[in-house]
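User: I'm writing a tutorial on reading structure tokens. Could you give me a worked example: one chain, its sequence, then its tokens, then a sentence or two explaining what the tokens reveal?
Assistant: Sure. Here is the example chain.
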Amino acid sequence: MNSTHPPCSQGIHLIGQWSAAHTTVTLTYDDRFLRRKVLTTATGERFLVDLPHTTSLNHGDAFELDDGRLIEVIAADEDLLEISGDNLTSLAWHIGNRHTPCQVEPTRLLIQRDHVIRDMLEKLGADVRDIFEPFTPEGGAYGHGRTHGHAH
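And here are its predicted structure tokens:
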């Protein structure tokens, strides 16, 4: 390994298609959408991600370095809104109608903090609470890809 250049990622292994990571890299939802960037692992090692196209990574995917080591992607804790209430299906529809990434769970929805969406949801009768947790929203159409909010 040349000390002037960090190791380079040679590809991505999807969750469930690899084992035995060397270390981890913790990334927010926005940071898990990348093409070319130098990242730093939990052990302080830097490596270059240089993918052929912009890619959406999920918690549990792994980068394979040029020397064969695997670096597991961990979803970082981030500022979120937890949405609950009696009408979760309707609330989920309103969130989706605004193209807002949403983590769907049986008793709650999670979205990135947004005061405008929060106000709308509260007016619709939602219980909304600030939380700090990993964010792993649903993929785009057909279970893959990304949904982008209006701020992209």
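What the tokens reveal: The chain has two domains: 9-75, 77-143. The domain at 9-75 is CATH 2.60.260.20 (HSP40/DNAj peptide-binding domain).
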